[in-house]
Amino acid sequence: MPVVDTLITHAYLVLESRSATASERAEGLIDIEAAQQAGREIEDGWLAIQHGRVHSVGTSAQTPPEAARVIDAGGRLVTPGLINTHHHMYQNLTRAYAPAVNGTLFQWLTTLYPRWAALDEESVYLSTYVAAAELLLGGCTTSSDHMYVHPKPRLIDAQIAATGEIGFRFMANRGSMTRSVEDGGLPPKEVVQDEETILADSQRLIETYHDPAPGAMTRVALAPCSMFSVTESIMRATAELAERFDVRLHTHLAEDKDEDTYALEVYGRRPVEYFEDCGWATSRSWVAHYVYGSQAENQRLAAAGVSATQCPSSNMILAGDTADAQALRALGMPVGIGCDGSSSSDSANLWLETRGALLLGRYQHGPASMSARDALNMATLGSAANLGWDDELGHLNPGACADVVVWESAPLALAGAQTDPVESWLRSGPARPWHSFVAGAQLIDASELRLSGLEDVLTRHAAAAAAIQGLNA
């Protein structure tokens, strides 16, 4: 009788992605040697999945359990599923929107806000379904989403319906905006809400959907958009609500140089000082972008347990600066990776973002400053820490959630790559999932999505996108 559901054999297993430590390097070990000696990586290994969890792992010299299904990885790289910690999924309805593609961040936002005012449950369901499918194709198995535009009620309910239908692990971020252009903010009045409505709906979503249990498929975080679009009172009230229900907190912070000027003029404080004064400098908070913190502010937030998300493609497309991920990580701050909204980065591919993080880190600090394992660590354990989920996500040690990706690259892309499968995976490419599992369920098989409803969703999504972009007249 089979002992486990699925057995993956003949794989190069990355159970936990870490570069060699200082002591390992002092012994003369390079990254791959250190990882294999420490048991973080296994060459020609096997991994068994049972009841949505990693049951066991082993070397080719160890006998694996009997399995109902065996997948021969053929020497392919197997990693934990990548984790996306900053996105605005609804924005794929305005992907590469021509009037906004060459604008600054603020120009881009003010151009698109009026378009997003037409969002409804149908369009949000479709955009979330498309986003989750696209993320899967880039090796992502868990994503958060910062949904802060609410022209209609129950939009996050539609998101959770879409991710639940797919079987995609999801942390819904109940975003909010209270400050419209009439109140000195950026968004139009149609997409902001009053504080009472925001707090009541936040509590409803937590009580209805948030699952704190191990192995959860859906969790909820609270996420006021930014200091440009919410009041200080909703920041404070949201932090208090998150404390009461023990959920995560998320917002944009120190993303743009104009934020300093705005914060000093409106709040009389720098952005990080404002963030701290509102009660957000805690270990339940993770922040998107975090580009312009001072060294002292970085140290304070790291000491408080705050974590950050880098969004490489979005930063480069909008031609801003980017978070110094390696400097923040050196302070002990977990740093994850996000693709950001589809309208700014125009792609939701976590392999691409992980490679972008590698390139940016080396560009900032030199060739010895960042390895592929550092970047993979950000996309797995770092991102899991962003979501407060690193106990069971971001690694493949026995007992972890069975969110597993078996990677494939074109033979030409890997020709000559024979000494380090992890570096080869990220330096060459593009790579894509050959097989992908979420909670032990296979969602990609032989590089094809197992989503029977995708074709219909794409047809409906095209119509919804045309309507929102004003192309139906």
List its traits.
Amidohydrolase family protein; 17 strands; hydrolase; four-stranded parallel sheet; alpha/beta; 473 residues; TIM Barrel; 39% helix; MTA/SAH_deaminase; 18 helices; Amidohydro-rel; nine-stranded mixed sheet; globular
Would you kindly provide a brief summary of this structure?
The protein folds into 2 domains: 4-80 and 399-448, Urease, subunit C, domain 1 (Roll); 82-386, Metal-dependent hydrolases (TIM Barrel, Alpha-Beta Barrel), CATH 3.20.20.140. It is 39% helix and 22% strand. It contains 18 helices and 17 strands.
Topology:
Blueprint: E1 4-14, H1 22-26, H2 31-38, E2 41-50, E3 53-59, E4 67-72, E5 77-80, E6 82-84, H3 105-116, H4 121-137, E7 140-147, H5 155-166, E8 169-176, H6 195-209, E9 218-224, H7 232-245, E10 249-253, H8 257-266, H9 271-277, E11 285-289, H10 295-304, E12 307-310, H11 312-317, H12 325-330, E13 335-337, H13 342-345, H14 350-365, H15 372-386, E14 404-409, H16 411-414, H17 421-427, E15 431-438, E16 441-445, E17 448-449, H18 454-468
Parallel strand pairs: 1-4, 1-5, 6-7, 7-8, 8-9, 10-11, 11-12, 12-13
Antiparallel strand pairs: 1-2, 2-3, 5-14, 14-15, 15-16, 16-17
Pfam family, one: Amidohydro_1
Keywords: Hydrolase
Protein name: Amidohydrolase family protein
Overview of the molecule:
The protein is α/β, with parallel strands linked by helices and 473 residues long. It has two domains: 127 residues, Urease, subunit C, domain 1 (Roll); 305 residues, Metal-dependent hydrolases (TIM Barrel), CATH 3.20.20. The protein is 39% helix and 22% strand. The protein has 18 helices and 17 strands. Strands 1, 2, 3, 4, 5, 14, 15, 16 and 17 form a nine-stranded mixed β-sheet that branches. Helix 5 links the parallel strand 7 and strand 8. The chain is globular, with a radius of gyration of 22 Å. The model has no long low-confidence stretch (mean pLDDT 96).
